[in-house]
Each structure stands twice: as structure tokens, then as C-alpha cells.
What we know:
Layout: E1 2-6, E2 14-15, E3 18-19, H1 21-33, E4 40-49, E5 58-67, E6 71-80, E7 83-94, E8 131-135, E9 149-156, H2 163-170, E10 184-185, E11 190-197, E12 210-219, E13 223-231, E14 237-246, E15 257-258
Antiparallel strand pairs: 1-5, 2-3, 4-7, 4-11, 5-6, 6-7, 8-9, 9-12, 10-15, 11-14, 12-13, 13-14
Amino acid sequence: MSETRVPPIEKSWWTWSGALGGLVTAVQLRHAGEQLPAELTPRSLHGSFLAPVKDLPLVVRTEVVRRSRASAVLRSTVLQNDRPVALATSLFGTSGDKPTLQAPTVPVVPSPEDCPDARFPASMFPYTAHFETRMAGKERPFGGGSDPEMTAWLRLRDADLSTAEAALVLLDAMPPAIYAATSELVAVPTAEYSVHFTDGLSEADLHDWALVRVNTEQASDSWAVESSGLWSPDGTLLAVGRQTRQILRPAGPGGAMKVPATWWTGD
């Protein structure tokens, strides 16, 4: 078991009531990778969020569950005030060759320069200031559309992240896809987050533009299942993700806040 202390995550990375989950898993992935030789690279990560990660010092504990010459499985726990707030199981493996087979699912969209700025309200969700975001599909957050799916070009601003860590952050950076089919703002925090990295990731520069698509597979009044994909500008699939989100409605009439039509239109 290895343990390290990590400085608090800045409040500029907050969403809802704590740090962006994608960044929390990036911290766990980094610590896991430090326990292994360089030839073993990230293949997947499954994370569970137990409580919001506040702006307090972190302790990350990582255990190598199993290791062979070609792969390793590690389990990481993030603690604050001696209390576990996030868990992650990560798989590392030897690098593969360039992809020889890829499903033709990359969205056909205009280039970033031809897409409108999302104008995310950083005053409400501070983490959005760490990205340039250009909406690439027809759906918009709180647009009240019929399709719970959104597509956008994203580019990180000055983040000290490896390529795999950046992929974790980018796949969690979009608003919940369910927002495309509503005009009401409710909290939809992530309870579980899984990401699978492809061999194309080794050739990527995730501090350049990357294309992200998120869509809701199923939702009720309490839970939603969301899937996502990450592509390079040339259409190479870099990672796929899934999230289980909890839908939290405040008490009182309506249980949600109506969102003005001028928010997040990107037009």
C-alpha cells in the first residue's frame, strides 16, 4: 500500500458542491501510475464518488491488487479528514499498436472555428473556466429539445495533466446530456464514472481541440445513465465513458429552477 498527500484542489475546479469528478479520478490515476513501470499505461478506470471533494488536503492510498508483465490492476482511495470520499479501480497494460479497427461513430460536425462559443456560466460552475468550449451539435443545454445528447469541441487551458488524465477531465467536462431535453436546472452529480482508453490516445494531444459527445441512455426522476465519446480532430477515437448520475430535486414547488433562454445558448 502506497500513500501520498496531495494539496487541496482549487475551488476554480468546482462543480455542484465539490471538485469536478474527472479531476478527482485524474489524481487517482496519476498516483496509481507512479507505482508502475512506464511501459504499463492506463487502459481503463472505474471510479465511485462517496462525498463531495472539498478544498481540503487529500490523502491518496493505492494498492497494487495484481500485476503481471503485461498488465496491472490497482485500487485507489481518496480521503479527506480521514474519511474516504472517492474510490477507483484502474487497469494498466502494455501499449498496443495503432488502431486497426474503429467503429465509424465519430460525429460529423463543423470545425471548432465554425462552432459557437458555449459561454458557460463560470460564476455558477467555476470549472468551466478551465476549458474553451464550442457547441458543435444542434442541441444546447436547457434548450428543451427532444434529443438528450450534446456534442462540443473542447480545449484545455493550461492544465498540468498527462494525456490519459486529460481524457478523464474532458469526458466529464460537458454538462449532463439530460439538460439538452429540459429547461430546468437540477443538480445531477455523478455517482459512478468509468472510462476506457483506446490505443489512439498515445498519439493524441489533448491540449489541442478534442471532440466530445455525451448522451443520456436512460433517465428517471432519480437516476440517469449517460455515455460519452472522445475523438481527436482527425476522427480517431481516444476514449469512451459512462456515468451513473443521481438527479437531485430541491424540496418545494416545482423542485427545480427555470433557466433563462439566454443561458448556454452558444448563439
